[in-house]
């Protein structure tokens, strides 16, 4: 199954009358062109990623990204992957334990967390994780 997602950098801001550059992210360019993509991501303000990966490629991509940390684009890709349906529990743990706040929030907002991750999310000291968790419970 192919998964395609789009996420804008600085998604809280509205860009009027401006062009948004889109980085197309797939398995090949994570492995072969990551430094170039990362530089483009870091030097652009109006940019989005389009993540286009096969479900079977998720694990090798995450493991490759771990070697790039700390890196904003790697964290962004991992936070998007954290929202994929049918994500294996071990990958959820890996993303939560190595990711930034965005990764942790994305994991903690899932409905299919294993008990150990639920506990981590409930006990998180990260104010962003707490706020998103509380907002999720208010809307349930």
From TrEMBL:
Taxonomy, superkingdom:
Bacteria
Q: What is this protein called?
A: Uncharacterized protein
- Which species does this protein come from? Hoylesella shahii DSM 15611 = JCM 12083
């Amino acid at each position: 199954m192919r998964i395609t997602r789009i996420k804008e950098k600085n998604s809280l801001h509205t860009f009027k009358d401006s062009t948004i550059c889109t980085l197309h992210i797939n398995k090949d360019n994570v492995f072969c062109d990551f430094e170039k993509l990362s530089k483009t991501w870091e030097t652009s303000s109006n940019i989005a990623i389009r993540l286009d990966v096969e479900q079977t490629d998720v694990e090798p991509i995450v493991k490759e990204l771990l070697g790039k940390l700390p890196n904003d684009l790697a964290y962004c890709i991992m936070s998007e992957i954290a929202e994929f349906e049918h994500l294996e529990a071990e990958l959820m743990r890996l993303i939560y334990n190595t990711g930034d706040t965005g990764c942790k929030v994305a994991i903690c907002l899932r409905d299919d967390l294993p008990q150990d991750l639920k506990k981590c999310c409930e006990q998180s000291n990260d104010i962003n994780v707490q706020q998103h968790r509380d907002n999720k419970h208010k809307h349930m």
